[in-house]
Amino acid sequence: MSDDNFNLSYWYKKRYITPKEVREKLNSLHLEGRKIKRMKFIGLCYNFTEYEIEDAAYSGLKNLPEEERQLKSNYDNIDPNTEFDREVSIDEPFLIQFEDGDIFEIETPIESNFCIGMNTIPWGARAETNLPNIDANVLFSECIGQAVKKIEVNTFITDEEPLFREKFDEEPFKRELVSDVALYLENGLVIDISGFFDYCEVGCYESEDRCSKITFEELKKGMI
Q: Which of 71, 97, 126, 204 is the most exposed place for a label (fewest CB within 10 A)?
């Protein structure tokens, strides 16, 4: 099967749900010490469509009169120095290729469910839902060439199933689920992967509560 015809549905069949399953799978891949060569979003980054970019720019102009705010948030008029979070919402896998050639694959088909693999998705695999619109190497440029120092699997306790927020109807009525997987890099940045309903959010963070920023001028260089 060619890269173009790779069927992602097979990859999605195996899911890691409990913290133990996620940790054991990640540990088996030996990611620590590996240096990032390049990255890829197979499909669309929903928060970087033209509409969403304009909406984010508009939100950042709260102090301006409405007419000026509307004008300056028009895509063609956005200030090149306007900053955006280095974070995406996707629904197809995120790939990291290391300098040794191995390709790490991860995505959350639904919140707290993780699909994780190594060298099972060809780098040239094409989107099955919506075509990609952002080059991950540009958005996460600060991560290129950095080695993974450590990995953390963070968890939370809940009495609701993640997708529809309905109470668990069988024991255990409270369960520990995975909130996110964090890859700590040698330069202090963190690549964080988490689920949000049926989307996957991947972000580059400077600290636990501060997302790294990219200017609109730089972001445009990565638009596909």
A: 71
